[in-house]
Write a structure and sequence with these properties.
It is a single chain. By secondary structure, this protein is α+β, with helices and mostly antiparallel strands. The chain has one domain: Transcriptional regulator MraZ domain (Chemotaxis protein chec), CATH 3.40.1550.20. The strands form two sheets. Strands 1-7-8-4-3-5 form a six-stranded antiparallel beta sheet. Strands 2-6 form a two-stranded antiparallel ribbon.
Length: 151
């Protein structure tokens, strides 16, 4: 289970260090093997431990092949997926094409999202977090079945 928002830096080559609090779990879960792909909804990247990505692939494989929506989602997620591995220093390289998609520069945010991470441009993450907080504070914005989560 991954949670928390972590300010991180990308070096000039596009490498980032996985925060140490996640490294042991990633090594034990998937031997440091990761998959990074685009997020099909938000302007960020998704970073999956290989074992979690295999579950996503199985769901994508089960989608009806005659559905254009299914094929579109498969093309976006599978077509942009890149295999990565944590190096001995706990770093991984984000490919240039994916860095461009998420507009990643030196300052980024690695955000735990239960079974995966989202990798955001720091300014984009901060703007979204601020907008989300403002939206959820509006009267009636939270359905009754979710109120117990925030009270």
């Amino acid at each position: 289970m991954f949670r928390g928002a972590n300010a991180i830096s990308l070096d000039a080559k596009g490498r980032l260090a996985m925060p140490s609090r996640y490294r042991d779990e990633l090594i034990s879960r998937c031997e440091g093997q990761l998959i990074v792909t685009i997020d099909a909804v938000d302007p960020c990247l998704c970073v999956y431990p290989l074992t979690e990505w295999e579950l996503v692939e199985a769901k994508l494989r089960a989608l009806p092949s005659f559905s254009e929506d299914s094929r579109r989602l498969q093309r976006l997620l599978i077509g942009n997926a890149v295999d990565l591995e944590l190096d001995g220093s706990g770093r991984f390289l984000v490919p240039p094409r994916l860095r461009d998609y998420a507009k990643l520069d030196k300052k980024a945010m690695l955000v735990g999202s239960l079974n995966k991470f989202q990798l955001w441009n720091e300014d984009a993450w901060n703007a979204l977090a601020e907008a989300d907080l403002a939206a959820i504070q509006q009267p009636g914005a939270v359905p009754d079945e979710l109120r117990d989560l925030i009270l």
